[in-house]
């Protein structure tokens, strides 16, 4: 018999809730695997299709622009229709967009596919995190978000080198088809695990644009959410600066591609270990503000260390500090979003969270 859990979502049993958690984690992994697969391929593929350097840069950026807008729209969909339908639809349309990469024959076609890709994938991360927030017990939210973050870090380690190996051996098209296949596999798994879970409806269908804007402004002004949003925006500005500037700085000092890859792998591995460790339980038991502050401090110390020089020891120390900071702050910021919202508005809250994530990376890259 279906019962209403204290976490705001209707479940048949604890087993159904556990299945929902693992389905959400699968969605998180494939969504971020998809993101990191693109990093080494998007710009070279655009140039291979005949794009000028300026057009190639715009093609690369078009995904982030579409994803930023898509996050905001996806948040409203998640609250209006629940988590299951937007997640499954997002997986299937993303698979369609990825298949389109293998079919394009020109740069403008690639631009259209990138825009569709950015919009389609926008529902996945907010939906998965909102679902985990719905299902996870209140005293285990940071722990649950930490495991999610660890999966993101694992995807960051695995996806780029795998994409590079496949592209070298098979070409660009097969890489995107493999990525699409992951989405196709994840969609029925998510549907089977989530089909019996029903979130409470929230946003009425007749809500106009002004009401939607007002909804997001009200969320952003909520104190706990403002803390989470401010933290993630500050971090992602630093991340955008790091991923744009550090490879160029390493190259300018005579470093190799292997050194660049090792530096970012070190950051991702450290972050994954922290987020999967018992440290996240401290956040659940003692509050989230301490880990947020410590995380931002470590991120700042990491950047300062890198500014002092890029000798091997300083580079390793700086990336370890940056990874520790991310590992501490991300689970706590995500848990704050859950604690500051009701299930009926949680999709919108995470949509704004990931929109700010994109804004921060873009701002950091520009700076």
Describe it.
Helices cover 82% and strands 2% of the residues. With 367 residues, it is mostly helical. A three-stranded antiparallel sheet has the order 1-2-3, covered by helices on one side. It starts with a strand and ends with a helix.
Layout of strands and helices, then pairs:
Layout: E1 3-4, E2 9-11, H1 14-38, H2 42-48, H3 53-81, H4 84-103, H5 107-120, H6 124-135, H7 141-170, H8 172-194, E3 198-199, H9 209-221, H10 223-252, H11 257-275, H12 279-286, H13 289-308, H14 312-339, H15 343-366
Antiparallel strand pairs: 1-2, 2-3
Helix pairs in contact: 1-6, 1-7, 1-8, 2-3, 3-4, 3-5, 3-15, 4-5, 4-8, 6-14, 6-15, 7-8, 7-11, 7-12, 7-14, 10-13, 10-14, 10-15, 11-14, 12-14, 13-14
Q: Notable features of this structure?
A:
three-stranded antiparallel sheet, 2% strand, 367 residues
Concise summary:
The protein is mainly α. It contains 15 helices and three strands. Residues 1-8 and 202-206 have low confidence and may be disordered.
The largest sheet is:
3 strands, antiparallel
Shape: globular
**Helical content (DSSP H or I, runs of 4+):** over 70%
Number of strands: 3
Count of helical stretches: 15
Low-confidence stretches: 1-8, 202-206
Oligomeric form = single chain
Class based on secondary structure composition and strand pairing = mainly alpha
Distance between the termini: 55 Å
Q: What's the helix-strand series?
A: EEHHHHHHHHEHHHHHHH
Radius of gyration: 20 Å
Range of strand content: under 5%
Strand order across the largest sheet: 1-2-3
Q: Average pLDDT across residues? A: 86
């Amino acid at each position: 018999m279906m019962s209403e859990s204290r976490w705001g979502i209707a479940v048949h049993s604890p087993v159904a809730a556990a299945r929902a958690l693992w389905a959400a984690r699968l969605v998180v992994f494939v969504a971020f695997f998809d993101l990191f697969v693109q990093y080494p391929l998007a710009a070279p593929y655009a140039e291979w299709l005949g794009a000028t350097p300026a057009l190639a840069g715009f093609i690369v950026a078009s995904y982030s622009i579409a994803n930023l807008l898509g996050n905001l729209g996806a948040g409203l969909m998640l609250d209006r229709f629940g988590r299951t339908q937007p997640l499954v639809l997002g997986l299937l349309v993303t698979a369609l967009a990825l298949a389109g990469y293998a079919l394009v024959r020109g740069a403008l076609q690639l631009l259209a596919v990138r825009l569709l890709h950015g919009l389609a994938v926008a529902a996945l991360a907010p939906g998965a995190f909102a679902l985990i927030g719905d299902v996870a017990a209140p005293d285990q939210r940071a722990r649950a978000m930490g495991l999610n973050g660890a999966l993101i870090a694992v995807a960051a380690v695995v996806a780029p080198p795998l994409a590079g190996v496949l592209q070298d051996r098979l070409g660009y098209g097969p890489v995107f088809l493999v990525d699409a296949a992951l989405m196709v596999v994840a969609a029925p798994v998510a549907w089977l695990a989530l089909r019996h879970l029903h979130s409470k409806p929230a946003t009425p269908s007749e809500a106009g644009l002004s009401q939607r804007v007002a909804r997001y402004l009200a969320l952003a002004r909520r104190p706990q959410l403002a803390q989470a949003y401010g933290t993630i925006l500050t971090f992602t500005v630093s991340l955008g600066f790091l991923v744009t500037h550090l490879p160029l700085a390493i190259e300018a000092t005579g470093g190799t591609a292997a050194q660049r890859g090792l530096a970012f792998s070190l950051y991702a591995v450290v972050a994954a270990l922290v987020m999967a460790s018992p440290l996240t339980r401290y956040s659940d038991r003692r509050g989230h503000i301490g880990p947020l502050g410590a995380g931002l401090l470590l991120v700042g110390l990491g950047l300062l260390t890198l500014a002092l020089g890029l000798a091997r020891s300083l580079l390793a120390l700086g990336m370890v500090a940056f990874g520790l900071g991310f590992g501490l702050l991300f689970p706590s910021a995500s848990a704050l979003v859950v604690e500051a919202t009701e299930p009926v508005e949680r999709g919108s809250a995470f949509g704004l969270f990931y929109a700010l994530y994109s804004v921060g990376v873009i701002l950091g890259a520009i700076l």
